């Protein structure tokens, strides 16, 4: 009975102004109850004090032209969504060919500025609904055309209702909700939506329950939850919106950190680890035979690792270090430690080619140490694979190198003491857990192997704290030797002849060069053809007297290896390649990296590619070639403003810095953490309010608080923490929480 009654209250169609059609449209977006409406937050606000005039907007857009500005502003933004209010001065239809047309609305706002709104589709609808004289609210992305005029292509527009206009003029702030396609076709408009949300607030605000304790609210000066909801929907002023958002951000990240703290605490407390004696004769022998001395950071990290592995608890450590910072040798010394203690180790790479590289590097290093290394990757012949599996099972194999294939359920380890994962950012939390489980099988029931994850994607500390919140973090900042920073320059294709001359001069000094082309072709065959064509052309017309090699993705790994070896042994002066050289190959004598069509590459790829040179004490150079008319090329209609800006920022960033941490920060801003870190599979919740890139301070604070609460009260059993316990259980009911059932 009670159920029934509750359901009825929540039926949106009975709310005044909704009805069945509109209710069905909302249901398509998952909004069924009034409470769902309360959780449907505005994406922006119409606020008289914040809305810019068309005139000032034009000035701002001109200032934001990134190609002109130097250096890149730290707070650049790609999505320059703006809201403006104006009157339609003129409505004009233009016809092209037989049945193509566009609708252009000219907008003025009395500031002396003007803008055009352009619609390519639904032109009849817009023409009829928005005649000249109408006052409208426009939200979208303004662009400056080549004459310096503001254009909006297909923005959201709505008529400014006289009542709304009045309250706007009086200084009231109006929420702007995201309008989905289904809402639009379901007869919703902003004004009705606002009214319905307003009544939902009146009826249902009382059902919003506080989930933070009083002491936290006080300590961090947080608004309570009901106030925050009300303000986010219907603020009295824009300052309080900031406060409400702060509260919601804090709440989001706090419970996630609380969850991480609980998990870390319980795993430290409950899982015994193998105790590894740091005195390892073979690690010492390798250390003493190295052709270089380890950097201070490398030594520091090795110390942190050996301490971890000696502590009696399983190690869970993330090792961050830029490309070329020397993570491999650190992990290898660690592995030898574990092997000398009588355990096996496994090192996993995300791709077969990387696994192969590790395999060969490791074999070279441990040649004289009487250690057995095996390789386990997909696509091995059954017989070979079975032999490898036997060696792993019997314990004859000390080191297993491979891809995720090495953790398939039919792989049995004798006693796996350490799992090393390279390029961690490609694996998620869940996968890490799974690996651990599989490792555990080989040990005594309750013992868990040590885990070292390595990442060459340096990410800002606050982010790594969130993303890898249950890991301890080690960082290698310092590069080996006194490597000189690589000089980087963006060049136009017309300048290529002088770059070729430069390369020839370098070759005269017995140095070598990479010339990279992007993989632009869809099909493998075409791709191969284009790589070969570039190669032939360069070889014949530009470098007839130099020796050129070719490397592309369609070669077998051993062919690539062979080519790289020939290059390494200076059999080639120039290596013409596709991006296959991206992953960790080392040619210390190469001093030039020329990247063609560089505007097509992502920032992290550019950084990785550049990392192929500058690996010795020689001065190295990186040239980022792009089309002459690139600035305008990218302005074509097919290229989104955002893409063009992003390309410019990427290239300029490369010119401005070689620091991987800086670069990754820019990359994060450009692509968002989801794309950069693969957060979807990383176990990171999707936050509605928190911005992982910008909200570092909030993350730090919330994390510190969460961890100290769990340190003090691991199972949240104290009365003052009951409210937190309930919330964390609700939010993470699908995850194992390791709580006592009290
Ligand atoms: P990454 O961290 O990108 O995996 P690598 O481990 O492949 O880097 O190391 C890059 C290169 O630097 C390798 O050739 C390695 O032998 C060399 N190297 C590592 N540590 C040092 C050091 N302390 N001094 C000089 N060279 C080093
Ligand atoms: Mg590496």
Structure, explained:
This protein is α/β, with parallel strands linked by helices and 742 residues long. The strands form 4 sheets. The protein has a 7-stranded mixed β-sheet. A 7-stranded parallel β-sheet has the order 12-13-11-14-15-10-16, sandwiched between helices. A hairpin with a 3-residue loop joins strand 2 and strand 3. The model is unreliable at 1-10 (pLDDT under 50).
Largest sheet: 7 strands, mixed
Strand content: 15-25%
Report the strand count: 22
User: What class, by secondary structure content?
Assistant: alpha/beta
Helical residues, percent: 40-55%
List the helices and strands and how they pair.
Blueprint: H1 2-10, H2 19-28, H3 34-38, E1 44-46, H4 54-63, E2 82-96, E3 100-108, E4 114-119, H5 123-129, E5 135-140, E6 142-144, E7 150-153, E8 156-159, H6 162-169, E9 174-176, H7 181-185, H8 190-204, H9 214-219, H10 225-233, H11 238-270, H12 281-289, H13 296-309, E10 316-321, H14 327-340, E11 344-348, H15 352-366, E12 373-376, H16 382-394, E13 399-402, E14 416-421, H17 429-440, E15 450-455, H18 461-467, E16 472-476, E17 487-492, H19 496-508, E18 512-516, H20 524-542, E19 548-551, H21 557-568, E20 574-577, E21 590-595, H22 603-610, E22 621-626, H23 630-633, H24 641-656, H25 660-677, H26 679-682, H27 696-712, H28 722-731
Parallel strand pairs: 4-7, 10-15, 10-16, 11-13, 11-14, 12-13, 14-15, 17-22, 18-20, 18-21, 19-20, 21-22
Antiparallel strand pairs: 1-9, 2-3, 2-5, 3-4, 5-8, 6-7
Helix pairs in contact: 10-11, 11-27, 11-28, 12-14, 13-14, 18-27, 24-25
The structure holds adenosine-5'-diphosphate (ADP) and magnesium ion.
The site of adenosine-5'-diphosphate has 17 residues, from α14.
